[in-house]
Amino acid sequence: MTPEGAEFGTTLRRRTPVVPALLCFVALFLLVAYPYAKHRSASETFGFDLLGFAVRAVLAPLSIPALPFFSPSLLLVAAFSGRSALRAWQLPRELWLSGGCPDCAHPRTGPRCTECGRLHTPPVGRPSRALFRVAVLLTLAWLGGAAGAEVFALLDEAMFRRDARIQTGGVPGSLLARPRWWPMNDSMLFYSPRAGFTSRD
């Protein structure tokens, strides 16, 4: 009997859960990016601050406003991605034990698979490797969400600098202000010749 998730003639290496992994990456990316952007606007920072970036990347998704939504969502993402990774690790072993090729599920006959050409040897690897890949993926998504939100904020500030140069034209005493881009639009960007460029709630 062929284990669930296996089909004769289908190379299982191609059935590695790429789509679930991408969905988990995008979900965690957005779960981190949004609270990071909100904290970035509340920090009244204009320009890049390495220490501030590191602190916000770790603490913003764990803040009180974001925590009730972030924590269960993170658990769901981790559970879903972990299950997908473990299933990708388990399926070749189940196929081997049931007499199938670990790569394509075709019944084993002879030293080499007649369907995909794989040499018939037991699948190797440990579940810890699959879980390690999941941990790496989620870490990259977390850092990517923070970095993406930071780049978005810096782009917003760069556009404001450009607008200030165009609209003020170097006229003494010229002032300029506008809201930040969404989702940071609960704070304002300001320019004055005396204070320069600033961000305030």
Structural topology:
Layout: H1 18-42, H2 50-59, H3 67-97, H4 127-168, E1 176-179, E2 188-192, E3 196-200
Antiparallel strand pairs: 1-2, 2-3
Helix pairs in contact: 1-3, 1-4, 3-4
The total count of helices amounts to 4
Shape: elongated
Structural class: mainly alpha
**Unreliable runs:** 4-16
Percent in strands: 5-15%
Elements, N to C (H/E):
HHHHEEE
Can you give the mean pLDDT?
79
Overview of this protein structure:
The protein is mainly α and 201 residues long. It has one domain (12-152). 54% of the residues lie in helices and 7% in strands. It has helices spanning 18-42, 50-59, 67-97, 127-168, and strands at 176-179, 188-192, 196-200. A 3-stranded antiparallel sheet has the order 1-2-3, with helices on one face. Helix 1 (18-42) runs antiparallel to helix 3 (67-97) and helix 3 runs antiparallel to helix 4. The N and C termini lie far apart (64 Å). The model is unreliable at 4-16 (pLDDT under 50).
List keywords for this structure.
mainly alpha, 54% helix, elongated, 4 helices, three-stranded antiparallel sheet, 201 residues
Summed up, what is this model?
It contains four helices and three strands; from the N terminus they run ααααβββ.
